[in-house]
Design a protein that fits this description.
The complex is a heterodimer of chains A (63) and B (381). Chain A is 73% helix and 6% strand. With 63 residues, chain A is mostly helical. Chain A has one domain. Chain B is α/β, with parallel strands linked by helices and 381 residues long. Chain B folds into four domains: 108 residues, Beta Barrel (OB fold (Dihydrolipoamide Acetyltransferase, E2P)); 141 residues, Rossmann fold, CATH 3.40.50; 61 residues; 44 residues, no CATH class. In chain B, helix 6 packs parallel to helix 7. The termini of chain B are far apart. Classes of the chains: A mainly alpha (63), B alpha/beta (381). Strand 1 of chain A pairs parallel with strand 7 of chain B, so a sheet runs across the interface.
Chain lengths: 63, 381
């Protein structure tokens, strides 16, 4: 699962680019599709997550 | 006259008190009648035992009181010296084994420096200041969307439960890494330092250093210079939630953010999921709108191109039409009917072959002659 903040940053960059630049339709569509996909993943992360609590000893056990 | 006292009966096994009964009763009376109080006096006969307990007397010009301060209360203090004027906050009691009236000292402040505890605090603070660790410019920004949040606190305390509840509600995307530590007592300093040290090697975005309340003396670990330096050395931001409104600890000063409670620390460390979902919805709308705008631009461009195409075609058609008119005029001029109209005639044989030469027209040859309004039969004479 990609890091949430990276996901959101990329999404914002896509929206800004799509808003600001005069892109040809092909490129605009490609950006839009990526934006929609990232939005879907972000929403999924936001709505499906359940807090994980780890005691540090679990982390320290040899894996 | 009252009854004479029966001395022998009072001194019997049933009538007399035991030593233990008297001291226990006296202790109960003293403890019930004298709640913990502040006492001012001069230190005399100070002695620190190997156990860490301190024994001394408090005196003024007319009286003196025996005092004991146990290690668990004094371990954060520098030892006072005889002759020092102090305030103690103490519980009057009776030490039954010796039958001594004494004070169990809970806090000790020297009147000169505003307390030994304060003295140690100021000394450590000066050292931290000298090394630039209290510089506000050192304070780091908290990560907006933390992935891993480490918590250093007592594993069974209310602080951990509060933090868990807040993070679970606000930002369950995060992983909570709990590093249990002793936050009170003599071992707290080493325990907190080792917990911080462990976390510093983990991929953690933010650390909460929390304590679920308690008395002022329990703050000691968070006023330790060693712990403060460990906090300052953390590679990621640290939020302190020591839970004491009035006393700012050294850890609070060094931490990147000071929160009043563990719950407040958890709130500061996390974004609100509902707000982020709303933010995503806005981004989604902007995305859709941006695509609509982008495609409208393309459609407009296509429209303009179409217009040009049609205009171009119109021009071409116009030209073609003119050309056609010219051509048909010329064709019209060349039409054989026009020629016949001018008085010429065409001779053709019975097969329709045009007879143009004398050799084709021997004497007596029959042929047909086409003039402008019809045909007639003819014969060569």
């Amino acid at each position: 699962m990609p890091e949430f903040s990276k996901q959101l940053e990329r999404l914002e960059a896509i929206v800004r680019r799509l808003e600001a630049e005069d892109l040809d339709l092909d490129e605009a569509l490609k950006l839009f599709e990526e934006g929609v996909e990232r939005l879907r993943v972000a929403r999924e992360q936001l709505t499906q997550a359940e807090l994980k609590v780890k005691k540090v000893l679990e982390i320290e056990s040899p894996s | 006259m009252g009854q004479p006292i029966d001395l022998f009966a009072a001194a019997s096994t049933e009538g007399a008190w035991t030593v233990g009964e008297v001291t226990r009763r006296a202790r109960t009376v003293i403890e019930a009648g004298l709640p913990p109080l502040w006492v001012r006096g001069e230190i005399a006969g100070f002695k620190a035992w190997r156990s860490g307990h301190w024994y001394f007397s408090l005196r003024d010009t007319s009286a003196q009181l025996r005092c004991v301060m146990f290690a668990k209360q004094n371990f954060m203090l520098q030892a006072p010296t005889d002759g020092m004027q102090v305030f103690v906050f103490a519980r009057p009691t009776l030490y039954e084994e010796k039958g001594d009236f004494q004070l169990t000292v809970l806090e000790l402040l020297s009147t000169e420096q505003g307390g030994l505890w304060k003295l140690a605090f100021e000394k450590a603070k000066a050292a931290l200041t000298k090394d630039g660790l209290l510089d506000p410019a050192r304070k780091r920004r908290l990560p907006p969307f933390p992935r891993r949040i480490a918590v250093v606190t007592s594993p069974d305390g209310a602080a951990l439960r509060d933090i868990e509840a807040v993070v679970a509600r606000r930002w369950p995307i995060a992983e909570l890494i709990v590093v249990p530590a002793q936050v009170q007592g003599a071992k707290a300093e080493a325990s907190v330092c080792s917990a911080l040290n462990r976390i510093s090697r983990l991929p953690v975005d933010v650390v909460l250093l929390a304590r679920g309340g308690g008395s002022v003396e329990d703050l000691w670990a968070f006023n330790s210079e060693r712990v403060a330096r460990a906090v300052a050395a953390m590679p990621m931001p640290v939020i302190s939630a020591i839970g004491h409104e009035t006393d700012v600890t050294l850890c609070d000063l060094v931490a990147d953010l000071r929160a009043p409670t563990p719950s407040a620390a958890a709130e500061a460390a996390t974004p609100d999921r509902a707000e982020v979902i709303a933010q995503c919805a806005v981004l989604g709308q902007r995305l859709a709108r941006a695509l609509r705008t982008a495609s409208r631009h393309v459609v407009e461009r296509l429209d303009r191109a179409g217009d040009r195409l049609i205009r171009g075609m119109d021009n071409r058609l116009e030209k073609s039409r003119a050309l056609l008119t010219a051509h048909s005029a010329r064709l019209d001029a060349l039409s054989p009917l026009k020629v016949l109209g001018r008085g010429y005639a065409v001779a053709r044989d019975e097969h329709g072959t045009i007879l143009k030469r004398v050799a084709q027209l021997p004497s007596g040859k029959e042929f047909r002659l086409r003039v402008t309004d019809g045909e007639v039969d003819a014969r060569v004479q």
